């Protein structure tokens, strides 16, 4: 062990220090960036997991926040499959997933990104009335992608308690090719418990655009 490592508590002590600093909003930006580079150069599973912690920090200055997250994104991407795998594991335990999905898509491809989104969505509950934001954001992300798996995965959320989640589920299903979505959206359109005129109007528009038979 080097003398300076000893003074800092050894490599384990340095890891903890940099892990705390990279996700500390009160730290200086250059200090957070230095810690990010230290963790990336260390390259251990623990260090890369700590590096992902920067994705969970939201700064008030949006441009600065995006710049720092892009730096972390690039550092993880340099580790290829290993970096993507660790980021994927981190995302399953944290609410912030957007940069991780981008990373998986860059390293492993579009299909892998869809599978990650579906995996994250599968852990969300339709009847959970707390924090619907993640469900909504996942469905919005799925609406930007194409996969035969998306329709069935989004369908349960057509009856979610939150209007935003239901609307996002409608859009995720409508964005997919083929007519499979009709059998799921028809009950949503005919649902007498649906009180959202926005959702009803959007469903009518979708059925007209796709030339699907309207439910009774």
Could you characterize the architecture of this molecule?
The protein is mostly helical. It folds into 2 domains: 10-108; 125-216. 67% of the residues lie in helices and 0% in strands. The chain contains 13 helices and no strands. It has helices at 3-7, 10-22, 29-42, 45-52, 62-77, 80-91, 98-108, 110-122, 133-143, 150-154, 163-174, 180-190, 197-210. Helix 3 (29-42) packs antiparallel against helix 4 (45-52), helix 6 (80-91) runs antiparallel to helix 7 (98-108) and helix 11 (163-174) packs parallel to helix 13 (197-210). The radius of gyration is 21 Å and the shape is elongated. The N and C termini lie far apart (76 Å).
Topology:
Elements: H1 3-7, H2 10-22, H3 29-42, H4 45-52, H5 62-77, H6 80-91, H7 98-108, H8 110-122, H9 133-143, H10 150-154, H11 163-174, H12 180-190, H13 197-210
Helix pairs in contact: 2-3, 2-4, 3-4, 3-5, 4-6, 5-7, 6-7, 7-8, 8-9, 9-11, 11-13, 12-13
Summed up:
This protein is 67% helix and 0% strand.
Largest sheet: none
Beta-strand level of the residues, as a percent range?
under 5%
Rounded average pLDDT: 93
Secondary-structure element pattern, one letter each? HHHHHHHHHHHHH
Essential attributes:
single chain, 216 residues, mainly alpha, 2 domains, 13 helices, elongated
